[in-house]
Amino acid sequence: MRPLLQFLFKYYNFFLFLLLEFFAFLIIYQNSYYQQSSILSAANAISGGIYGFSSGITDYIGLTSINKTLADENAHLLSLQKSSFIKTNNKVFVVNDTLYQQQYTYFSAKVISNTSNRANNYLTLNKGLKHGIKKNMGVISSQGIIGIVKDVSDNFCSVTSLLHSKTKISAKIKKNDNVGTIIWKGDDYRVVTLKDVPAHVKISVGDTIISSGYSMMFPEGILIGSIYSYEINKGKDFYEIRVKLFNDFNNISYVYVINNLMKDELNELEKRSQNE
Prior knowledge:
- By secondary structure, this protein is of the alpha+beta class.
- The protein is built from 4 helices and 14 strands.
- It is 33% helix and 33% strand.
- Strand 5 and strand 6 (144-152) form a beta hairpin.
């Protein structure tokens, strides 16, 4: 108690000044309409600024929830699009009274770590076994192919990026359906290489490159990029095509993991063929 009294006594003049100022403003406020209006306007401006700042922070924090909701909705829409179904012959086999049987479903996931400046790059997603994620599932974003699920734990999974020395994706030129293989040579995170396209095929800078559908991981038609430049390898009859990616691998937040509902059936069929 004594230190408090000493503090008040020491700064007695300062506190007396504040008290007198308060009463002076109070008298002015009560006896002058103009001053009253000015003070109220200033107070409203200050409080409005504080509320606006607070609302901005709240809205920013809420973006995480909004983004997740949108990602989930997009995953549902992807599952419903035509490329997620295969057509069956209704004269022989009908599923739920429709010509189409669903082949692909999609899980939304958030990227929690990512690299793009190494020879072998990976991403980590916040979904795992508990959410239905399995090894060798394809991963895409709204801008195109991202990579392939490598390892899975209960709550997370790692993804081998398209920017990896061992990643190979079957792709084709959209305008003429000629198929090749996408690889990454490790020099530019914005550019990959499409190889194995025959030199007699007519191509142009700007042609769109998409997934071929020959892989069990990606449906046909998933975006990859556009032709940036090309040349014919000496002594070979194939192009080496530089493809500028639609994805910015330095800026990926939400992705979609593809579940091929017929993958086990296709794997079993391929094993039988290989054993003959």
